[in-house]
Amino acid sequence: MKVAIIGGGPAGLYAAILLKKQRPGAEITVYERNRADDTFGFGVVFSDATLDNFEKHDLPSYRRITQEFAYWDDIAVHFRGTVHRVGGNGFCGCSRQKLLLILQERARELGVKLLFEVDIEDDARFADADLILLADGINSRFREKYVDHFQPEVDVRTNMFAWMGSTKPLDAFTFIFQETEWGPFIAHAYQYEAGHSTWIFETDPKTFERAGLTGLNETQSAARMSEIFGWFLDGHQLLTNRSMWRNFPMIRSKRWVKGNMVLLGDAKASAHFSIGSGTKLAMEDAIALAEAMQNAPSIKAALEIYEHGRREEVEKTQHAADVSLVWFEHVDRFWNFDPVQFAFGVMTRSKAITYDNLKLRAPDFVAEVEKSFAKQVHDNGFDVDTNKPMVPLFQPFRLREMEIANRAVVSPMCMYSANEGVPTDFHLVHYGSRAIGGAGLIFTEMTCISRDARITPGCAGLWNDEQEASWRRIVDFVHANSATKICLQLGHAGRKGATKLMWDGMDRPLDEGGWDVFSASPLPYFPDSQVPRELDRAGMDAVKDAFVAAAERGERCGFDMLELHCAHGYLLASFVSPLTNARTDEYGGSLANRLRFPLEVFEALRAVWPSHKPMSVRISATDWADGGIDGDDAVAIARAFAEAGVDLVDVSTGQTVRDAQPIYGRMFQTPFSDQVRNEARVATMCVGNITTADQANTILAAGRADLVALGRPHLVDPFFTMKAAAWYGADGVFCPPQYLPGKEQIFRNSERDRQDLEELRIKAKPKTRAELKAEATKPLAAE
After folding, report:
1. Assigned architecture for domain 2-331
2. Which positions make up the signal peptide (predicted)?
3. Number of Cβ atoms within 10 Å of the Cβ of 148
4. Strand partners, 448
5. CA 448, 450, 455, 458 torsion: positive or negative?
6. Cβ(255)–Cβ(150) below 8 Å
7. How many CB atoms lie within 10 A of CB 105?
8. What is the CB neighbour count within 10 angstroms for residue 125?
9. Is the confidence at residue 734, as pLDDT, over 70?
10. Whole-angstrom distance, CA of residue 406 vs CA of residue 397
11. Cα 189 to Cα 236: distance, rounded to the nearest angstrom
12. For 230, which of 128, 136, 345, 383 is 20 to 30 Å away at the CA?
């Protein structure tokens, strides 16, 4: 077997090692354009988990690598004159040059042929190779040569960064957030060997320009960074090695394999340096390829196994990197945060670390976070304990004169179970049980303002006396048997109306019994959907009047709060999105024009809804489609509604057009809530694949939302909030007297269960290499 590897970085060298171990008789050659001892950059960083993987796959190289590593447990966050240290992280740093030399030495031991200063321009010279590995880095020549096949997507990020080094010793992975006269600068720094540390400096393009960095050479740039971070460098110099300022390219390739050629490492996919995963991904690519080659019947089959088996893990890492890099690109959003909340945001930015696991590894730090959050609540007029506070989820919140006891919200979820718009006993049990379950706030499903405003024949409405009476019965039950507040969500289906029940074909047009539908423009949802009529001025007035009439009925029902649905492609959302609004009158064109009618409706509702009761608006913060609404638009939309008197923005996304491409994942819509809250400066509620109280605490403590709505968890567990309260010891949650014995029991059991689980997790957690090294070097006690 003959293998040609183009690129002598970590991916190419480690792949050569593993394949040669697997097939000692194979002829494996690595071609590298640079010299053997050339390297660019300074250190690389791995987690303990990554080192465990290396240990499993090649013990000799693992041992040599770990002999050279600098180990640390702490992450230190420097911000506005404070330092917060968070332990238990288990990281290791190594010189990039040393890593390459170790891998080169190990490859030679195994019989791999290494050729340096060989620039491969044409893969045709490897016509006799059985396998060609393209590991030629982020600027891969061969990925670009076969661009039509590999179909790479390159997202060049906005922030500028430069990779430098220093002689400054460090005992933690260090983040420094430095305010300057030009704007914020960030340093990502860690020690990789005695007397040497890596420093990556980052800033936004406007700050970069104002600081006069444009056009400076390496020496001049290092001098400027030494001025800015001199207080921390303490006289230690900054070192350069091709340390030019540049933008980071996020690379994703639709295909990784072409014939017997396969992309590895940065050539196929990149991950932002803020999560330190570039070299990790490269070497784990090599592991995945070797594992695929182990038992596959052919090289073709092995490459298919590699691509399909490895892609999900790579994309998960890239998603975490994406979320992390966006946090750093918009660090100015959080600059006014309390420093401990800011540090918590740094730690949880990529969603890999959450409230609970951070509390296990750094309990003192999380205790400080809890006190900071409770102090904010106290400063907003609530008499809460700031010395031994409840977790954020069980801190109260106020909107106008409405106070809610906790931040857990039952998300608005259509039940499609009404009878001609009339809520039934199903709805009474549905809403009543979730109120008894302890949630601070419940939202109704989208309640339609007229018969022709329904999504489906099963949608609930509020346009006649029978419906009003049924809703009043539900609201009365909630108020009589719980401390939960209940919000009425009003909406109009627009072009997505006259469709089947969800379980019969979501958004598919009715076969019979339909009704005329309306939208901002005559654009059908599906090609075979009913073509909506464009709403004219008379139609707008009728719709607005129907909203007002429904709101007045809602007030008579006793609802505590009112929400206007302007999301998910329904009628009002169809005005907002340019993908569904093709109008040429004053209600089309610019965002301000497209918002005109939704704001008219909102202002009409605000005029009739009692001034002491809050109002919210649900928006789609992105259409997940080219040319549609994006996060910046969402901020402008939120500001417009805030000026009109909105108290809360319910931040959802998508469902506007059928060809949308949402990026799903845990808490996947939370970044949009974060952006709206911290740029528009308005209270937000986040929603979207939030499934645990741990996630809710993480979101709230980091300042990404003020309320957390959970849908599916509440569908299967009406007592989700009560169980979470028991788990965290929040015994102030309301419980009807009929259920008190059950509450007392679950609180007793949960306290024991939580203690047992935490003890098990602590015992099961292996010691980090930093801890093991500290123990090994600790002097023995005198006898």
Report:
1. 3-Layer(bba) Sandwich (3.50)
2. none
3. 6
4. 461, 491
5. positive
6. yes
7. 14
8. 11
9. yes
10. 7
11. 14
12. 345
Residues written for the chain: 783
Phi, psi for residue 133 in degrees, rounded to 5: -100, 125
Helical (H) or strand (E) element with 474: helix 465-481
Count CB-CB contacts under 10 A for residue 214.
11
Q: What is the DSSP string of 513-567?
A: S----EESSS--SSTTSPPPEEP-HHHHHHHHHHHHHHHHHHHHHT-SEEEEEE-
At 651, give phi and psi (nearest 5°): -95, 105
Q: Which of 52, 45, 279 is nearest to 172 (CA)?
A: 45
In angstroms, the CA 164 to CA 630 distance is 35
pLDDT at 777: 58
Q: Which residues pair with 85 in a beta bridge?
A: 76
| pLDDT tens, position by position, 237-280 | 999 998 999 999 999 999 999 999 999 999 999 999 988 778 99
- The residue ranges of every structural domain in the chain are 2-331, 354-524+533-732
- Residues above pLDDT 70, as percent of the chain: 97
Tell me what percent of the residues of the chain surpass a pLDDT of 90.
Answer: 84
Residue 457 DSSP symbol: T
Provide Rg for the chain, Cα atoms: 29
Strand 561-566, strand 615-620: pairing: parallel
Q: Which amino acid is at 353?
A: I
By C-alpha distance, which of 483, 440, 466 is closest to 706?
440
The amino acid present at 3, given as its one-letter code, is: V
The superfamily (CATH) of domain 354-524+533-732 is Aldolase class I (3.20.20.70)
Token look-up 């600790």 returns 778
> Residue 198 corresponds to which tokens in the numbers above?
């890596």
- Residue 391: DSSP 8-state: P
Identify the three-state secondary structure at position 74. coil
CA 631 to each of CA 327, 357, 394, 518, 588: distance values in angstroms, whole numbers, following the listed order: 13, 30, 29, 27, 20
CB 431 within 8 A of CB 478: yes
pLDDT digits (tens, 9 = 90+) for 418-444: 999 999 999 999 999 999 999 999 999
Give dist(CA 104, CA 108) in Å, integer. Answer: 6
Give catalytic status of residue 570 as yes or no. Answer: yes
Q: What is the DSSP string of 590-617?
A: SHHHHTHHHHHHHHHHHHHS-TTS-EEE
What does the pLDDT read at residue 539? 97
CA separation for the pair 400, 372 (Å, rounded)? 23
Report CA torsion sign: 638, 639, 645, 647.
positive
Q: Are 670 and 653 in contact (CB under 8 A)?
A: no
Give which of 611, 624, 617, 616 is closest to 595, Cα–Cα.
Answer: 617
Strand segments, DSSP code E, in 653-717 are 684-686, 707-710
Tens-digit pLDDT profile for residues 516-528: 999 999 999 999 9
- How high is the pLDDT of residue 506? 85
Over residues 532-555, the pLDDT tens digits come to 999 999 999 999 999 999 999 999
State the Cα–Cα distance between residues 496 and 520, nearest whole angstrom.
12
Q: Which residue has the tokens 């008190």?
A: 740
Q: Map residue 713 onto helix, strand or coil.
A: helix
First to last CA, the chain: 61
Q: Would the pLDDT of 779 be above 60?
A: no
Contacts made by residues 583-588, CB under 8 angstroms, sequence distance 24+:
583/520, 583/521, 583/534, 587/520, 588/520, 588/521
Q: Which residue has the tokens 């949880």?
A: 348
Write down the catalytic residue from 190, 306, 570, 728. 570
Give the pLDDT score at 766: 66
The two three-digit tokens of residue 15, written as one number: 């792949």
Q: Do domains 2-331 and 354-524+533-732 have the same CATH topology?
A: no
Residue 720: both structure tokens together:
């989700």
Q: In what order do the strands lie in the sheet with 70-72?
A: 43-47, 91-95, 70-72
Burial class of residue 691 in the structure, from the number of CB atoms within 10 Å of its CB (0-12 exposed, 13-18 middle, 19+ buried): middle
